[in-house]
Amino acid sequence: MFARSAVRALAQPSARLFSSTASRNFKVAVLGAGGGIGQPLSLLLKSDHLVTGLSLYDIRGAPGVAADVSHVDTASEVNGYAADQLDEALQGANVVVIPAGVPRKPGMTRDDLFNTNASIVRDLASSIARVSPDAHILVISNPVNSTVPIVAKTLEKAGTFNPKHLFGVTTLDVVRARRFLAETVGAHPSETPVTVVGGHSGPTIVPLISQSPRGNEVKGEKYHALVHRIQFGGDEVVKAKDGAGSATLSMAYAGAKFTNSLLRGLSGEKGVVTPTYVRSPLFEDQGVDFFSSNVELGRDGVEKIHPLGPLSPEEQKLLEACLPELKKNIEKGKNFVQ
Ligand code: NAI
User: Which of 2, 12, 147, 301 has the highest Cβ tally under 10 A?
Assistant: First the structure.
């Protein structure tokens, strides 16, 4: 038994990157597969054995990425699609991941990307509504706080919006929070999981460090520095890349990690819980109807939206700063589609 599983692991070396319980076939489409995120994300998805079909689309370069990735020795079928083949790329997709759009340059906020990315995301959402209306949609393109409401509104207009199937990918904030807390307290990242709630930009990112097993070891100045680093960690990468873009490799890792969580939920695995930005009732009474909190993922996508749990006074303040900003970002997205 042991020997057989060892042989299987060798035959599929990278399948062990992500834990899983396979029980269904999943076709995943990546829109923007030729880009800085799209390429490594496609590679990581090729390594995920829950993915049985991989459909790579971009307005530039996707067939080349597909040919390259398709040589990796896992079982999934890979196809690349050129600019005029979006419909073919979406055909039969269960999950559509969207990293299409322009990234930040030094000095830019995520909101500065709105003018370019809003229309890209809206047009892709229209095609999804037409060709694969039941697909689960994972939005990576920034500003996520606004692009997710844009997708929702576009689908709503097309009559296909299912709030259980739409996710803003905030996993990179969760990955950064875990890693940075581990560095701060000198622990292994396995000991420092952090739930991150709110949205995905600067002050809308609210890490709930007090709920982490090692979180209460960080106080005063150290605490404020840690929160700032989690909220603005993306800027470190933008600055270091010096005009060549924003986080791509860590984002691809985060995108593949979230996709794997969703596929595990869709496969019927129980107890898959992770933060993600969804249509949420938690702060609806304050006009904030999209919010990231821990979400249980199940056979039909969003199964249960968890409440935030106990917050420290500092976290309460962070939340108060988050909500009005997030509300503005959501309204901006919705108004774009009207
Ligand atoms: P990139 O410029 O390297 O790649 C974007 C790709 O999108 C390009 O290959 C481009 O040809 C393609 N594209 C543009 N319009 C398209 C369309 N209509 N259909 C299909 N493909 C299209 O940018 P990168 O670094 O990959 O970033 C992509 C997006 O992800 C940006 O908006 C960035 O801000 C965002 N991002 C999100 C993060 C998150 O945590 N959610 C983290 C890091 C980046």
Answer: 147
pLDDT over threshold 70, residue 65: yes
Nearest CA to ligand 1 atom 31: 103
What is the CATH classification number for the domain harbouring 232? 3.90.110.10
Mean pLDDT of 183-193: 98
Boundaries of domain holding 102: 23-168
Same domain, 157 and 64: yes
Please work out whether the CB of residue 38 comes within 6 Å of at least one atom of ligand 1.
yes
Dist CA 167 CA 263 (whole Å): 13
Residue that is last in its domain, among 143, 168, 193: 168
Average per-residue pLDDT in the chain?
93
Ligand 1 lined by 82 (C-beta under 6 Å): no
Choosing from 41, 55, 58 the residue with most ligand 1 atoms within 8 A of its CB, the one to mutate for a pocket test is 58
37 is known to lie in a ligand binding site: yes
Instruction: Check if 59 has its Cβ closer than 6 Å to any atom of ligand 1.
Output: yes
Q: Can you give the pTM of this predicted structure?
A: 0.94
Place of tokens 């020997």: 3
Residue 277 tokens, joined: 């930005």
Helix (H) / strand (E) containing 230: helix 220-241
Residue with the smallest CA separation from ligand 1 atom 9 is: 35
pLDDT at 333: 98
CB 96 within 8 A of CB 29: yes
Is 142 flagged in the annotation as binding? yes
Could you give the residue numbers annotated as active site? 200
DSSP 26: E
Q: Are residues 193 and 306 in the same domain?
A: yes
User: Is the peptide bond between 143 and the residue preceding it cis, with omega within 30 degrees of 0?
Assistant: yes
Atom of ligand 1 nearest to the CA of 33: 9
pLDDT grade for 162, boundaries at 50, 70 and 90: very high
Q: What is the ipTM of this complex?
A: 0.99
245 lines ligand 1 (CB under 6 A): yes
- Spatial distance between the Cα atoms of 76 and 55, rounded to a whole number of angstroms: 10
